[in-house]
Amino acid sequence: MKIGILGATGAVGQQMIQCLIEQDIKVDELRLMASRRSVGKEIEFKGETLKVIEATENSFEGLDVILGAAGGKSSKHFAPFIKKAGAILIDNSSAFRLDKDVPLVIPEINGEDAKKHNGIIANPNCSTIIAFMALYGINKKSKLTKMIVSTYQAVSGAGIEGITELDNQIEALLNGKEIENSIFAHQIAYNCIPAIGTFLADGYTDEEMKMQNEGRKIMHLPNLNVTCTCVRVPIIRSHSISISFATERLLTIEEVREAISSSKGVKLMDDGINNVYPMPISTSDNDIIEVGRIREDKVIGGYSLFCSGDQIRKGAASNTVAIIKCL
Amino acid sequence: MKIGILGATGAVGQQMIQCLIEQDIKVDELRLMASRRSVGKEIEFKGETLKVIEATENSFEGLDVILGAAGGKSSKHFAPFIKKAGAILIDNSSAFRLDKDVPLVIPEINGEDAKKHNGIIANPNCSTIIAFMALYGINKKSKLTKMIVSTYQAVSGAGIEGITELDNQIEALLNGKEIENSIFAHQIAYNCIPAIGTFLADGYTDEEMKMQNEGRKIMHLPNLNVTCTCVRVPIIRSHSISISFATERLLTIEEVREAISSSKGVKLMDDGINNVYPMPISTSDNDIIEVGRIREDKVIGGYSLFCSGDQIRKGAASNTVAIIKCL
After folding, report:
1. CA distance A299 to chain B (A)
2. Where do you find CATH 3.40.50.720 in chain B?
3. Predicted model pTM
4. In this structure, how many other beta carbons lie within 10 angstroms of the beta carbon of residue A33?
5. DSSP state of A265
6. Chain A closest-CA separation from residue B283 CA (Å)
7. How far is residue B97's CA from residue B68's CA, in Å, rounded to a whole number?
8. Which of A153, A239, B15, B86 is spaced 20 to 30 Å from B188 by Cα?
9. Which residues of B touch A279 (CB under 8 A)?
10. Domain B2-123+317-326 superfamily per CATH
């Protein structure tokens, strides 16, 4: 299989290269594409040194699959040229996710949807993947009806620059220097910022609405109602999510635990007394979604849980690469 | 007024000394008490240098009010001796909060309850104070019926040692050294720990149940139902809370905003497009509770909001000191 990565030098693009190896994808050619400023950068792949080339409208000839990790604007611009070259775009941006003829896929949940593609397959939002990985086993026992969600999102959700900004701010604070910020609207070191994405007229952000809009599509649950609050926290990697949810039939707590522990790609970490629960440090650089803190939630008429997952891996790169196998 | 502070050298005790000055409490004597290992420590108060003495059963003679900042065990032990000395204990620990004859007071909300004391008045849990400060204006317009809450709690909630542990871990990570932890069950630097307090049989922690149990008592709402998830985040100071809530009558968003902006001790910070929302860094070392991110929440049938407040100040020391004025 001849694969191209669009945006190969970013946090997600670099992780995709590693995931191609880990997931044992047979790669006959790997073409690394990025914007002009990264041209010539050398990246190792299976003992070979590959040079990054500039992504242009003619970069896609001869490729079978393009993994899109360059953001929505770039994906939108290049999609017609990828199609013209006869390749499939598996895109990590939000550009096409809600388009009717674009499947939105988490392989463990709706891998079969990938086959209905029309040249483009979309990878869901990172927090959305982590939340529904935690919940899909439960949904098999009884359909999800509603969720109230608060996130704890790592700075690398804003790319490598997000990590650099946190690191620089912590160093500045330790050395009594002035703090600078450009990636985040405020200081993120030792702070939380309850705003991710663009604000909409109703006060939600577009990032917050993805949990409902993308969740409905992935889960085939057009009536699922979700309230989401997205919060950036000073953590390098792995998003965590506090979820209260209800299902059509009230499950027993044993059913909820069983559903989670039998879900592929998910690990039950639910033994608080022994300090076992999901955490960013235990999910970082790991494809598994951890789920724990499972308790009856009388307010929503269901359960509460807490989950954590590496948003660069399962929330982005590993999920995108795994979609190749659905084809 | 002759005032004693029990646990004067801790994070809350030290803050109480500052709050006595800021709130202009007339202090004829200030007696600083702590455990034996702090004896002799010198603390400045209004230009005088006071020496910390050991708290013993005979330390309370001649005092009018004791501010308790030494933890539940200490408060329980000394309470009978404080009573015998004819002083009133205003206690920050959880020891007496749910006792029937002990008022649990947030002055802005139920200051009049303080007068019904029987020698002891309790200061509520820090997150509980911050959440209900955000909501009490709304509750005046229509009674709160239910809440789903996720917290973002600073390390100083575990005392000065919590701050030291976070600082040491960040320094160790920057210098490639081994990380040590004793205050928190896991590394807290660049991590969240979704477990605060002691685990109960139903999977909740005692810290999580305070939001409902103490909330019901403070608000005089015996049927209020609250689901709470408490999470420690790598932040020095100020707890933040994501809250979904419903009221008996569905308010308009204008009513919600008006209720918050007219609440004493609360600041409406609700202009996301201009990057205005509650944050730990803007509430740190400040008595004001910030509230923002107000949106209709169709899942709970009410609204969602995000609030932040300094848990050492309004969540503990300033609230305790302010209770003196209710008497």
Report:
1. 6
2. 2-123+317-326
3. 0.97
4. 26
5. T
6. 10
7. 13
8. B15
9. 186, 191-194
10. NAD(P)-binding Rossmann-like Domain (3.40.50.720)
